[in-house]
Amino acid sequence: MKTLSYHDDHDEPLTALRACVIYHTWRWRNSWHGAESLNFRSSDHFAAKATEQALASTLRGAKRHAEAWRAPGSVFHIRELPSLFADAGSIQMVFAQVDVVNPFADWEPSVALLGRPLRLLGLSLWQHTDGELDEAHLLRATLDPDEVPEPLIAGRVFRDWSSSPAGAKRNQLGWSGRPAQTDGRGVLSVQEAFAHAGSQELE
Hints:
Layout: E1 2-3, E2 16-28, H1 43-49, E3 50-56, H2 59-69, E4 75-87, E5 92-97, H3 118-128, E6 138-142, E7 150-151, E8 159-164, E9 174-179, H4 185-202
Antiparallel strand pairs: 1-6, 2-3, 2-4, 2-7, 4-5, 4-8, 5-6, 8-9
């Protein structure tokens, strides 16, 4: 999976938009008094403290990002995220909103995006985030040819992980997990809207 800049345009037509689960890794910058938090108190707070971030389709891939960024004093977090999987035939892409509990819950998707260039979906999601083209909060990534993101199932309980300096294997980070407050209903509602639009086109 390759995290992209929003300056990269894709004109392939969007054929489907589905709900999936993606893993978001980020390095957290401690505050001046040494405390840090997993909670996103605000978008500005997250942007100010996250120094590197990337998406992965598996937990193992997310941990590899953290290992690659290791430096003295670094603290890493991984969050399971309900995300959007966009299928455009020759290219598959995921979109993730990383600064809210219920991603895309207040996005009013236009099903007219089906069949239109994939870049228009990205533009619509940009406008959803208060019109601010902020790559710190809205990430997108292309999938490798053999990469298939996990489908999101209703009722899923999401998890967060935090790093510790030493793991069971020598020279690797340790990780502790916990249930998260993340809510997938917003992403599932988008999937439902696009699935209904697709079925109508086939009638």
